[in-house]
Every structure is written in C-alpha cells, then in structure tokens.
C-alpha cells in the first residue's frame, strides 16, 4: 500500500469501525457518514463494533458484503452493575486489582492526570473479563475508590470552579458508571489492522486496549466535540451539581484519552481543531476531512408552498424547543406556513421529546408544525421544502446542511461548528437560541422566493464543487491506507504502551496554522 496514494497491494485493509449510539442501529448524521464510508470503500474489509445504550432493535442500515457487525455491546444491558460490596475475601489465586476503580476515577476525572495512566487498568479488564464484576463487589476496592474520589474532589486549579458536594448516593452512582466503563474495556473486539473510532468518548476505551495489547493504530474521526457538547448539556441541565460535575469531568477524561491514543485525528471541520489542540493533540496529528454527499443532480424547483423542513433527532443539542418558538414567530407573519420536522427520538431522550410536544401544545402550533418521525430519505423530504431550518447548539460539519444545499434549497441555521464553511453564501446564519434572528431569516426567504432560489442555487454549486462524496472517500482512503501500510511494514508487535503515534500521512495541502493539514478543496 502506498502512503501517498492510498492504493492497496496484497490483502484488503481490515478496519475495525467503533461506533457509539449510531451506526448501524440509529439514523443520523454520523450513521450516514459511516454508511458512506463503508459502501464507498468496497476495497476495505469493515468490521463494525457497536456500542448502544440498553437494548437495540435490528440494524436499520443494511451492511454491504465488505462489512460485518462483528461486535455489539449493550451498555447498561445484560450484566447487572454492582449493588453492593463483597465482604468475604477472594481466593488467593484469583486475579485481583483492588485499585481498579481508584485508577479509573483518578485517570478519567482527575483534572491534571496523565490520560494514558488509566490504560493498564483497562488492559487488566480485557485480560480478566470474568473478574471485573467480582472486583467491583470487593470491599477493599470500594475503600480505595472512596479515597481516590476524595482526592479528586479536593483538587484545586485556577481553571476549575468549586466542586459540588458528593453524598454517598452520588458516590455509588459514579461507582456503577465506572463498572460500565470497565465492562466496555473488557469486551473483546474483532481483529483488524486499524481502529477507526467515531467519537472521542466511550468507544475510545476498547481502542485504547487494542493499541496497548497489540499495537493496533487508531484513527479518530471527530464530528461534534464530545466534551464541548457535555459542557453545553450541563449548562442547560437541571440535574444536581454533583451529577453535572461527573458528566463533564468524565467527558473530558474520555476525550483526553481518545486524543492521547489517536495516531491521527480527523475532524470534519477546522472549528474542532482548537479544542483538540487545547486537550493535547499536536497539530501534526490533525487532518481535517470534511463530510461529503453524493454528487448533486438537477435541481427540482421549490414547491413554493411556504414549507419549512428540518431533519434531526429530538435531542437537546438540536434545540428543537428553539425551533418550535421560531415556528410560532414565523406564523405570526406568514399564517399559511407549514413546518415539517423529520427525526427520531433517541433512547434516553424521551423526556425531552415529551417536553417538546408540551411546548408545541402551549404555543398552539397545531398542524402548522408537524413531527413526522424518522426518515430514511432526507434529501427526498428536503425537496418538499422552500426553506430548510437547523437550530442546533452544537454541530460538527452537518450532513443535513450539505444534503439541503445539494437539493438547491436555502438553509437558515445557527452559526455552530463548521456550518459557515459548508454554506457560505448559500443561506442565512444566526446565533444559537436567537429566535428572532432565525425567524426573520425564514420569513425573508418565504416571502422572497427569488432570493431563496438564488441562495439555493449557490449552495447546489458549492456542494458539487467542494463537498462531493468522492473527496471525503479519497481523504479516508489515503489516511487509512497510510496507517495500514506503516503497520504492515512494522510487522507483528508484542504488547506496547498505548502512546501517541506519528504515522506517515498522505501528501495533503497545508491549511490553517500550527502545522494542521486538510484535504484540499
């Protein structure tokens, strides 16, 4: 395989794709990207390892012949978390690691901890999976854990505010979460030559173990910035302060671990890079590869029925409540407007969805705003729009925006993530949560179909020129090809420390500052 061209020689590359709450079980932007990669790179042998919350139905995506669902772990599922500690001592011969929970809480929640210090504990879980639950029921480990948690809570740093008080119940909840982290690390993954991790979160745990045990390199594709989204969720959450502390610290710890083990970090937008660099990724390891969509065909004329379409799951990050308020504001000036929202309710967001429906009733929107459920044809539903609306408070490089522009539809969106790079000159942006600005933009485009058509035409041309599917595929073919080529050249490895790597990257154009690279437009 050539590191500069991505062409293969010999056996097809074997890539382990680690997903988290997305492909192949859930429809969404990341799942669409996974499907694009798998179907668009038929010369790669894909082995999917999926993490899902609770039970999951059958896959909603049909895997092609070059891909298999080689592993599936139900978090919070079949193995019950510990309900108490075990006071009877273990047999002397049984493998023990009484500091396991302490290592996890120090390594993942400590503010200044070495992110790689937690890896030996994760490796132990993989080597002794049948001992993980038993250890979490060990009284000695519980005592080690409490001392480590107290030390983390006593940390003082200029960047960190006051730490919320913990009671015993909160300490137990965190202990159970650590058990699930350990169980995730313990789960065996399929064999492969490179791990492609789709989020700097829980799916980085098995990748860290695989790199430590066998030297399997890691490519991290970052869509939204997980830790940033955790901070945003905490700001809007009504959970107790201690719960928000745990959620944000754990998100930061998992993100730092993912960044530390990644040989290459591939954000979908340059907007992610400052977060990556701040949390330890050297610019030389960052390679921006924007999302892509199929080449746009001929633009069908807009229906001119004053229809606004939105596509996205019912999730706080999509800020559907702001969308509902925008709809109410627009209807005051355009009484015959219709809003159609297509998107599923993710597992765990049922309360948020109920809140959205309650706000819908409170605003008296009736049939002027309809929840249409999930769709498998996002570009098809967007063709029914005069305007496409997105109100997210966080995004990476949203595929839904590219899909709308590929159909020649103007977009009104919040200015988040890589949105501006995607739709410059092809729509209208506003700050997140700014109901009036978003509503003004929607009204202006509904009342001026000529302007809407011109903006949609610019978007159609821009997608075809800059954000085609093939450009995205070529970027990942080159990166995965270079990493696999170096791995094959190095040969089999014994157990190695899970340290950062520096694989040979394909030749790319230099973009931005600080040495970061990007796939050239």
Automatic annotation (TrEMBL):
Residues 14-283 form the DUF3492 domain. Keywords: Glycosyltransferase, Transferase. InterPro entries: DUF3492, PelF-like. This is GT4 family glycosyltransferase PelF. The keyword Transferase applies. Residues 495-521 are annotated as: Disordered. The keyword Transferase applies. Pfam families: DUF3492, Glyco_trans_1_4. The lineage of its organism: Bacteria, Bacillati, Actinomycetota, Actinomycetes, Kineosporiales. It comes from the Bacteria. It comes from Kineococcus glutinatus. NCBIfam families: PelF. PANTHER family: D-INOSITOL 3-PHOSPHATE GLYCOSYLTRANSFERASE (PTHR12526:SF510), GLYCOSYLTRANSFERASE (PTHR12526).
